[in-house]
Write a structure and sequence with these properties.
The chain is mainly β. Helices cover 0% and strands 52% of the residues. It is built from no helices and 27 strands. It has a 5-stranded antiparallel beta sheet, with no helix packed on it. Strands 2-3-4-5 form a 4-stranded antiparallel beta sheet, with no helix packed on it. Strand 8 and strand 9 form a beta hairpin. It is globular. The two termini are 14 Å apart.
Length: 360
């Protein structure tokens, strides 16, 4: 079963993104009202807004948390062509408890068009930040001194040659750093709408290793599954349909002349689902990379899992009105919309240890 709570966010416009921190005890939301709100989970199980502030001069598309090893740090991106890094500092204790202040530590202004996504790198790669823009550029920044996050240096420019809408880091420690980039370009003749890039230590450059040609519809979200010992990578793609792609490393091509070493992969589509019967907007994995959640215009959150034969199927559906049903191939969901300015919080229950919850 599920336990659901509706939070009146008091955002004055469309909510674009909601992000949990590493422990699932804090939540950040961003909106077209140009603001970001931070929520803390209290001991009574209620979410309380502890900070709200205007971040940009345009719609805020994404918000993401850094690993707690680097402190309480947020990054945001916006239509105003900027990405910003924020750090928390605590103020005075008032009647409603401690109110935190978020200080703008750095602003990244290299983009000439809207910044559509921002993601921190996995912890083992250090404090790095990747952003993608609608002009087809992916930029990777690094903070050399984690004690001073106001200094960020541009390390890499990656030209994708398509309009970027989303990106995802591969968190695997056993493979070179990888980034998947999606495009929401509506032109069907533009080829595959998802590309995979890999960092090469010998050349110190990012190289495109795969273009997923099976995806020709606009891509709204991509997510690498956490890799806990797998010999292959799983990539979820939210598009007209939900697709799951496996990438199995086959080794590296030999060096010819001055050409760089490029990894080769066996790419396979392991699952494709049209159960949402509408565009899929967000995908997210659980911490072990075994359960995938997706949300679409049908007003439902759907959970997917593979059996012991590696065949993926739906295991549960949560409707927009908070009711639950078992996954059924013949099930037809009626679209349902949340009230304007509302955030719905979902967790699996019953549980005995709250730290083991999988949140979506």
């Amino acid at each position: 079963m599920f336990v659901t709570k509706q939070i009146e966010s008091e955002h004055k416009d469309l909510i674009h993104d909601v992000s949990f921190d590493f422990y699932g005890k804090r939540m950040a939301s961003c909106s077209s009202d140009q603001s970001v709100k931070v929520w803390d989970l209290g001991e009574d199980g209620e979410w309380k807004c502890t900070a709200t502030w205007k971040t940009h001069s345009g719609s805020v598309f994404r918000v993401t948390w850094a690993h707690p090893e680097f402190g309480q740090v947020l990054a945001t991106c916006s239509f105003d062509r900027q990405a910003a890094v924020w750090e928390e500092s605590f103020g005075d204790v008032g009647r409603e408890g401690v109110k935190s202040n978020w200080i703008k530590k750095s602003i990244l202004v290299d983009s000439r068009t809207a910044v559509t996504d921002v993601k921190f790198a996995p912890k083992h790669l250090g404090l790095q930040l990747a952003i993608c823009c609608s002009d087809g550029m992916v930029r990777i920044y690094e903070c050399p001194d984690v004690m001073n996050i106001s200094q960020w240096s541009l390390q890499h420019d990656i030209q994708t040659k398509f309009k970027c809408s989303c990106l995802s880091w591969n968190s695997s420690r056993m493979h070179p750093p990888m980034i998947a980039v999606g495009s929401d370009d509506n032109n069907p003749s533009g080829g595959g709408k998802c590309q995979v890039f890999e960092y090469n230590d010998s050349t110190r450059k990012w190289t495109k290793v795969e273009t997923i040609v099976a995806v020709t519809d606009p891509v709204h979200d991509v997510a690498f599954a956490p890799n806990l010992g797998r010999s292959y990578h799983l990539l979820a793609i939210a598009s007209k349909e939900l697709k799951i792609i496996s990438l199995t490393p086959l080794g590296r091509d030999s060096v010819i002349g001055n050409q760089s070493v490029v990894s080769r992969f066996e790419m396979k589509q392991v699952a494709s689902f049209a159960d949402h019967e509408s565009p899929v907007w967000r995908v997210s994995w659980n911490v072990t990379g075994t359960v995938l959640s997706s949300s679409g215009d049908d007003g439902c959150v759907r959970l997917w899992k593979a059996n012991y034969l590696g065949r993926w199927k739906g295991i549960s559906i949560l409707k927009g009105d908070a009711s639950q049903t078992r996954q059924d191939r013949n099930f037809s969901a009626n679209p349902s919309q949340n009230p304007a300015g509302a955030v719905r919080y979902i967790q699996q229950a019953p549980v005995h240890n709250a730290s083991h919850l999988v949140r979506h």
